[in-house]
Design a protein that fits this description.
Layout lengths: L1 E2 L6 E3 L18 E3 L7 H19 L1 H15 L6 H18 L5 H23 L12 E2 L2 E2 L3 H17 L3 E5 L1 H17 L7 H11 L4 E6 L2 E6 H21 L18 H28 L7 E3 L1 H10 L1
Parallel strand pairs: 6-9
Antiparallel strand pairs: 1-8, 2-3, 4-5, 6-7, 7-8
Helix pairs in contact: 1-5, 2-3, 2-5, 4-5, 4-9, 5-9, 6-7, 6-9, 8-9
Length: about 325
């Protein structure tokens, strides 16, 4: 995590619409603020860490409620099958988040899309024996409960919430190569059962494509930046931790966890990091167009890299 600072102050970056600089639609306006009157760098750093943690917690509201539902349904006897109850619960959560405006209808649509992508993957993985869902349910098809898609949707919800709460901006994003690689990542989850696993070459390709892509975010009075690829890796690590909690609560089980719970293999951390990139592509596709299509005159939060933006103008 790099602070976009200089001297003793803090730089705030915001992207302005319709400002072309050498073919790019961006640049930044920079203002400076101090550490909000806090003289000690250590105290200020601790406060920033607490602020960052709090923003992460509230960005994880949907995943948090989902895990609460998993815990309650594991230890409390329910009048209906556990997976049926979890499906109703997750649908109610989705409606509630939309009703109280924690998520817009466009974000709900993107999250639902990721739900379907996740269900497709689940149906295949359960069929080939990669993992299983214990217990029966009316809403269980091909060995997969319909609620399972919400575990993928929770990742999309987190990205949408974090985008708003951290005031995210993405610079030098290359949409087409990133989307192609995200599609290859999804395909590789299926094809590696018959052909060599290509996740490492695909991951290296993603690193190349995203080598100049930065994500800017705000914590308190300070603006920071981080390589987007690093953000994928960090989110993937915490998803691996969440997966361990999920299997402990018997949301699903890997073959070596059926008789006794074991830690999920650390290799799954890499798989989650790649899966995050898929979710990000879905969310970014909406965020890149919001200023242009939905809120005309407002800045887009995803800045397309200059060469791709120039190519789009030429094609038009």
């Amino acid at each position: 995590m790099v602070s976009a600072t200089g001297g003793k102050g803090t730089r705030r970056d915001r992207f302005l619409p319709n400002q072309a600089v050498a073919g790019s639609v961006r640049h930044c306006v920079t203002t400076w603020t101090d550490r909000a009157g806090i003289p000690s760098r250590f105290v200020f750093g601790c406060l920033q860490l607490c602020r960052f943690g709090w923003l992460e917690v509230v960005s994880c509201l949907f995943p948090g409620f989902l895990f609460a539902g998993l815990a309650i349904s594991k230890y409390v006897e329910l009048p209906i099958a556990r997976y049926d109850a979890l499906l109703i619960y997750c649908l109610a959560l989705t409606v509630l988040f939309w009703a109280v405006r924690l998520e817009t209808w466009r974000e709900v649509a993107v999250i639902f899309g990721f739900h379907l992508v996740g269900l497709g993957l689940e149906l295949f993985k359960v069929r080939v024996g990669s993992w299983e869902y214990p217990g029966d349910a009316v809403t269980k098809f091909g060995g997969v409960p319909l609620f399972a898609g919400f575990m993928y949707a929770a990742v999309g919800s987190y990205i949408c919430q974090a985008w708003r709460r951290f005031d995210l901006r993405v610079s030098n994003y290359r949409p087409w190569p990133t989307t192609v690689l995200a599609a290859l990542i999804y395909a590789n989850f299926f094809t590696h059962h018959w052909i060599p696993d290509l996740r490492i070459p695909i991951a290296l390709g993603l690193l190349v494509v995203l080598r100049r892509t930065w994500v800017f975010f705000t914590v308190g009075v300070r603006r920071y930046r981080m390589p987007l690829a690093m953000a994928f890796a960090l989110i993937g690590f915490f998803l691996w931790i969440a997966e361990n909690f999920g299997t402990f609560l018997d949301a699903w089980n890997y073959p070596d966890q059926v008789s006794v719970w074991r830690l999920v293999h650390p290799a799954k951390f890499g798989a989650w990091s790649l899966l995050v990139s898929m979710s990000f592509v879905l969310v970014a596709s909406v965020k890149a167009l919001e200023g242009r299509l939905y809120h005309r005159g407002t800045p887009a939060t995803v800045e397309i890299s200059p060469q791709h933006d120039g190519a789009n103008h030429s094609a038009g």
